[in-house]
Amino acid sequence: MKKRGRPAKYIGVAKEIRTLYNSKKGLKQIDFDNFKNWYESQNGCCSYCGLTSADSAKLFHKYPDTTRGGRRGKRLELDRKNPSITNYGEDINNLALACYWCNNAKTNYFSYEEFKQIGESIGKLQKVRLL
After folding, report:
1. Could you tell me the residue ranges of all domains in the chain?
2. Helix H segments across 42-90?
3. Cα 23–25–26 angle (5° rounding)?
4. Dihedral angle, C-alpha 39, 22, 115, 103, nearest 10 °
5. What pLDDT sits at residue 12?
6. What is the mean pLDDT of residues 12-34?
7. Chain center to CA of 3
8. Positive/negative CA dihedral, 72, 113, 48, 127
9. What backbone torsions phi and psi does residue 29 show, to the nearest 5 degrees?
């Protein structure tokens, strides 16, 4: 008997969205459905370098020593475009999806626009590392 509901490939995405949503306390100010719609509008890619969650997971397994002892890098993370806004949930337009490597390199020093240029270079290098 076939189960009803979403196909298996969508269950993983839904779980990833829920995990990301639950990762930041301040996000609770944003309705989950709004967050889910925002996430889906990001095409599942790092806003800076273009890596997908699947790419990030591959890099995590290929280079585990580069991910803070294997604690980060398995999936995309949330970044604040404007780091001076400390609460993730104040403005959904201040959110950006970021791979671990871009999020870690951007820190709070660069603006979103400034880091886009750096992220493109990181993406080129990471694509080579994925081969």
Report:
1. 8-130
2. 53-62
3. 120
4. -130
5. 64
6. 84
7. 30
8. negative
9. -75, -20
Going by C-alpha positions, the residue among 102, 95, 96 that lies closest to residue 124 is: 102
What pTM value is reported for the model?
A: 0.81
Distance CA 115, CA 44 (A): 19
pLDDT per residue as tens digits for the range 55-99: 998 998 888 777 766 678 888 999 988 887 777 777 888 899 999
Q: Is 34 helix (H, G, I), strand (E, B) or coil?
A: helix
The per-residue pLDDT for 2 is 45
* Distance (Å, whole) CA 52 – CA 100: 11
Q: Which fold has domain 8-130?
A: Herpes Virus-1 (3.30.40)
The Cα 100–Cα 46 span in angstroms is 9
